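Technical appendix A lists one of the benchmark inputs used to test multi-chain prediction within the project. The record comprises six sequence entries:
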Amino acid sequence: MWFHIDMNSHVPVYKQICERIKAMIISGKLKEGDYVPSVRKLALDLGVNVNTVARAYRELVNEGVLQSIRGEGYIVKGIGRSFLERKLKDFKKNLQDLKTMGVSEGEIEKILKEVFHDDTNG
Amino acid sequence: MWFHIDMNSHVPVYKQICERIKAMIISGKLKEGDYVPSVRKLALDLGVNVNTVARAYRELVNEGVLQSIRGEGYIVKGIGRSFLERKLKDFKKNLQDLKTMGVSEGEIEKILKEVFHDDTNG
Amino acid sequence: MWFHIDMNSHVPVYKQICERIKAMIISGKLKEGDYVPSVRKLALDLGVNVNTVARAYRELVNEGVLQSIRGEGYIVKGIGRSFLERKLKDFKKNLQDLKTMGVSEGEIEKILKEVFHDDTNG
Amino acid sequence: MWFHIDMNSHVPVYKQICERIKAMIISGKLKEGDYVPSVRKLALDLGVNVNTVARAYRELVNEGVLQSIRGEGYIVKGIGRSFLERKLKDFKKNLQDLKTMGVSEGEIEKILKEVFHDDTNG
DNA sequence: GTGGTCTAGACCACG
DNA sequence: GTGGTCTAGACCACT
């Protein structure tokens, strides 16, 4: 299993696939030139329809993240900085939301330490 | 304008309304017994359809957050702490994601300071 | 308190009032010539709006059940057999429904005995 | 035609749909894992709007009676016994009402026999 | 084809 | 004025 898809999320499955692929590139798990799994394989793996994975890959090709090699599959081309920047912006908004709801800086710090200094975290 | 709705988000508008109302209760902007705006007023205010607001309020009634009084409006009943707990859990997952993508603890700390110590934010 | 109104029922409040008045006539609690409570009094008693009671009485006048006496109030005129017949028809439909759902005749008989031979009921 | 909807009833159509679906599960006509008709098919069949059926199914999902599978349909998940218990309680109240209105036990017994021993009924 | 969401507009019951 | 329901029709995501 490459990653997890939340079928109950409101985020479309194909978008979730795009996000996870991009995250794997940013994190270095997928490098330029690597093959991503075939549409059929990933579809089987995630338990979703082939068309859905195909659509995700198509979007990634449009964004220049993947490149389609006829008869072979898709390879990683690269990814700009914009994805990570968007993620950080979303994070900031998330944080502001929590602040508004009365969550203290200390509570946030505690979670931060948990994530960064506890080996049991992802 | 009570709050902002992102019409481009994949999160359904009615869900966004639910979330904002709950956040306002958690933050104390709405207290038990307060009237929330009428479905028609809020719909006009947010630029969405009346039915969409009605659906959001109906869901909040199902969750015990609001109570409907025919011919009068909706009043705030209360909110469990499960909402905030879920928010904090989502935040932690968000954080782990960023860590996996190679974001350093320092970068996160920087954003944290921005949100909590810069009046121009939020 | 004359009777109970279910504010959460889908049956309109004014219809519920009509039904209860009719039931009281059928049962003999209200006889021909009796005064029903004033609109204001009943409204206060039931905790509903004056208009709602007024509407119920208006309907009952239309059906010939009540008669309006200008400046005095409303008196009971009488009630046909149709009300009880409708009630019995509804009861039969209710019973057929339970039968379809697999409720045995014995279970029904048990409830029947409870209602007709237990002084704590009704 | 799956079942009948009373368009003149004060009970909302979506509630009537919920009730009939639940009754069919209790009676065994629908079993766990069965597909219920698609929202569009049932809407066409009953002569109501698609949204109305969708709302009914949504409520049943909230109650844990149905489960939705995107692109496939809704399947029956199960039903607690609370539904039947509520039905029996309503029946008892109905019966007490009739007793108060002067209906004799004998008359009730007669209807009971009609329903349970006459093939022309139900 | 399936479900999920949204809009625009209608009518009813209640205060 | 308030909420509650329903319709007709649209677009999207998914199989």
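The interface with chain D takes residues 7, 49 of chain A (CB under 8 Å). Chain A has a mean pLDDT of 92. Comparable benchmark entries are summarised in Table A2.
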